[in-house]
Amino acid sequence: MAWFVVTTTLGYITYFLFPAVPPWLASQRGELVATHRIVRELWDYLGRHDIASAFSGSNVLANDVAAIPSLHGAYPVMIAAFFWRRSAGLARSGLALYAAAMAFGLVYAAEHYVVDIVLGWLYVAGTGWALWRFWPPAASMRPGLRATGARPRARTRPHVHAGGPPAPKASGRPQRSARE
Question: Is 167:46 a contact under the CB 8 Å cutoff?
Answer without folding.
Answer: no
